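check these tokens.
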Amino acid sequence: MPTDKELQQDKDLLKKQTRLERIKRAARDQVDKERPPSEILVRQASTIQSERLHTVFGGRLVRGAFQLMVGPGEAGKGMCSADILSRLSTGQPFPGEAGKFRTPITTVLCVTEDSAPRVKARLEAAEADLTKIYFIDGPPSMRGGLIVPSPIAFDSDAGALLDKVKSLGAGALFLETTLEHLGDRDGRKAWSTNNEAEVRRAMAPIVQVCREGNIIGWGVMHPRKTQDGGISDSISGSAAFNNVGRSVLHIYKDPIDNSKSPWRLFITSKANYLATKPATLKFHIQPWDKDPDEGHVVWGTENHSLTDFRTAQDIWGQIQDKNTKRRDYAVRDAEILLQEVLADG
């Protein structure tokens, strides 16, 4: 049992803490009263510089904007991104743009799901110019006695990243994966990916870096597990992810190709800044000649198998049908198993 003296000391300490909290609260209130109100900015439309769209890859990517690339695991998002990075770094034409060479672009990569050495191997297989590609991480941290790299956290690092982008003269930014880079470094801003307003606030620094840096930005995301609704509803989390991105790209294995090496489909579901959406393109993932254990993207030939004329919704409906059939088979197999197990009562 505490003594009377100890009880009195506890009461005195509580009073002191309460008094200090009142003083702090009064000080904050006074600062809020004296702080000048936020100024509302008014700009005449004639003074604002017009935006001219500078598109890449047939309009699938836009300079000064952020795009999403969505697809399940093993669909080919990483391989396809390596191919895009390679073409940006070398100026080689994109599929469907034979003979259209461009000025090579420096790119910065923020990767979390795959290691930098693994991504470098993919870039080598895609024959990228590695001198024009930079990996950028956040400040390292000490965890478990080891120095561990941390991902770029846009609520903490957006300004510093933009400075690096400008100092490198970079024209493109790739995030893998997008969700890993939302929020701040200390975890005080835990944005909900299912809340539209919070997703918009979380994505705002990424969009602003692309806009101020005048760079092509795209980031990888996974789809949600269920295939209910349309393809625009398939992105994991809030619909705001679909709405914030300037364009939305999807990569899936062709649902009607049952071969051992099926075609992969590069689908554009959103590109409302263009008169017509870019067509779906087809590619295979094949072994690299210099290292058969390493894969790379091989696009269909331009005069035969590059373009797929199904719409994004057509393909999505076929994906839904295929997954529904798989679920039906699973239920049928479970029923047969139960009938056999319970046959003797």
Remarks:
- Helices lie at 4-34, 77-90, 116-125, 154-168, 196-213, 240-244, 312-341.
- The mean pLDDT is 88.
- The longest strand covers residues 280-288.
